[in-house]
Design brief:
This protein is an alpha+beta fold. The chain is 64% helix and 11% strand. It is built from 12 helices and 8 strands.
């Protein structure tokens, strides 16, 4: 029964059989403690079936912290068996278990050559403890390095995020100055939009690339998933066009005097819209940069929290254009974020942004 336990691997067959004969078979129900930290017992436990959990008392809170699990085929309690020290941790049954219990006194009293058996067991235990400590040390070093890397990452993100908020504040100041000193200036003008694009997008992108060490490929400037991204762009653009036309039809059904369908069919995209396409790409590049940065910071594998926060920031950046634009920007940014999240390629989402932006812009002009 005990031949597969590593602790007994260096014993010969006779010694192993003698050890097995002096062991007692015990069972514990789930939740029962086999060993409690601090108690003075010296038995070794060979786990025959079930699982146990190892706990250590946290000095400050005095709470039991689980740090390890063991399954059948493993043993525990060896160190107290060797040196007689109090138990260094508690062991609790995670499931109903069965164990063989080896008492040191029973071994001394009932085996033919107890000292030799004890010496072999002691040497094996010390060797296993050394291997465990070496492994634990390596894991501890790796854990510390991981924490250092995470702190560096969070520090870089903090610089980037604070800078982004500052740039957003700069847009607020710029808008306030225009309202106070140039009340007749149209904040929806192309000049202001390009100034907004430069302040809110270009600077954060530069900081993200430098501070967060993001590559262009990570943001979406890559051929990876290009075909899928283009296909997504065409499909979602078509869905957006169809949805806008359907909404026009519904509004005309309610109020035929508006003739929205007819106005919708008069929409066209001029050649000069190529500049707007660049504008859309830069915006999507900036939005994707912020989304990826947030996704890395929050370790958000699916990216939904990153999309939501990014959308809120982009909606805030459009406050100078009024409440409706803020709402539309928030909704659109969520949609664009989800489309981008499918491929992490900028081509498709830029195409959707461009098509829907042109439609809504020229549709709005005909309604004025």
């Amino acid at each position: 029964m005990l031949e597969n336990f590593k602790l007994l691997a260096n014993l010969n067959d006779r010694q192993r059989q003698e050890v097995e004969k002096v062991c007692l078979l015990r069972s514990y129900e789930e939740g029962e403690y086999i060993i409690k930290e601090g108690e003075s017992t010296t038995d070794i436990y060979f786990l025959i079936s079930g699982k146990v959990e190892i706990y250590k008392i946290e000095p400050n809170t005095q709470n039991n912290l689980k740090f390890k699990e063991m399954s059948s085929g493993e043993s525990f309690g060896e160190m107290s068996f060797v040196d007689g020290s109090p138990r260094s941790s508690s062991v609790k049954a995670a499931t109903p278990i069965a164990v063989y219990v080896l008492s040191k006194q029973a071994l001394l009293d009932r085996v033919s050559d107890p000292q030799e058996t004890l010496n072999i067991l002691g040497a094996t235990i010390i060797h296993q403890v050394n291997d465990y400590l070496r492994s634990l040390s390596d894991r501890h070093i790796m854990a510390i390095q991981k924490q250092i890397d995470e702190l560096k990452e969070r520090n870089r993100f903090g610089v980037f995020f604070v800078s982004t908020v500052i740039f957003l504040f700069a847009i607020t100041i710029l808008n306030a100055v225009l309202d106070d000193f140039f009340p007749n200036y149209n904040v929806a003008s192309r000049l202001f939009n390009w100034a907004y694009l430069f302040i809110f997008t270009i600077f954060p992108i530069f900081l993200a690339l430098k501070k967060l060490k993001l590559s262009l490929a990570e943001i979406g400037v890559t051929r990876k998933n290009l075909k899928k991204s283009v296909l997504d762009g065409l499909i979602f653009s078509f869905i957006g066009i169809l949805g806008t036309y359907s909404l026009s039809w519904l509004i005309d059904f309610i109020n035929p005097d508006l003739q929205l369908r007819e106005k919708f069919l008069q929409i066209y995209i001029p050649l000069t819209a190529g500049i707007y396409f660049i504008h859309c790409w830069v915006q999507e590049f900036g939005r994707a940069t912020l989304q990826i940065a947030l996704q890395k910071f929050f370790q958000d594998q699916k990216g939904y929290y990153a999309i939501l926060i990014t959308s809120l920031l982009f909606a805030m950046a459009h406050f100078h254009l009024g409440t409706r634009v803020i709402v539309v920007s928030w909704i659109a940014s969520n949609i664009f974020g989800l489309i981008y999240n499918r491929t992490y390629n900028l081509v498709g989402v830029t195409l959707v942004h461009f098509v829907m932006g042109c439609i809504l812009y020229y549709f709005a002009l005909q309604l004025m």
